Give the backbone structure.
Amino acid sequence: MRGKKALSSAMRTPDGKIVVFSEKLQGIYENKLFQIPFLRGLIILWDSLVIGMKYLTISANLQSNDNEKIGGSSLYLAVIISISFAILIFFVLPVFVTNLLSNIIRLNVISNNFLEGFIRLFIIIIYLWLVSLMPEINRVFAYHGAEHKTINAYEGRADLNVSSVMKYSVQHPRCGTSFLLTLVIFSIILFSFFGNMPFLIKLISRIVFIPILAMFAYEFIRWLGNHLENPIIRLIAIPNMALQNLTTREPSPEMVEVAIKAFTSLIEFEKEE
């Protein structure tokens, strides 16, 4: 759970206890660069990857014996590999597939670029569905749902206890899954304006424009989350919310208990800072 000044993570140990790790957000979070629109999106996304991998590593180490601990350097290597894999699957592969199809189906430039975007979206949906079939990832998605339920309960001014939080939705408008869909939609719009170009140049352009797309997608998600009282904005957010059905699951009461502990620990830690 991330706040404005700190973050807290709660984990259940093999013996059933809940342990909490809290830390102050320092470094770039205290820099004025963090306040610059668009640039802050890139900073948060990168940091989210690093922090996410860091606490997944801590969680994995809690479940392991001393001979199976994961080291620090492997954390950053895992982040780099993950980003490279995502670029390869979600941006490079659609270009290859579209190029193959363009030799069979004759389309104009705009239609061809739209096809590439929809192939990218299709790959993301299939990928999320396939990984959700893995028991370990399905469990992660259930904790994702517990996180959303807890935040929804807090924003709904409900009591933060298990029975109360369980009643809330596993969907939340400021979810990272919403960012994925927005990124794809923005890529369809942007690349539809690109003219004919050699295959290699097209491939490079898709990679080069990822940071720009990410910045705009982040700001758009942030804007949506701040204007959900508007019925038109809620209508626009429906596809984003629907995609979260792939990355969230209904959590168990035990999972919700962990999420509540993380959130309440964050609130207490920020009060002390």
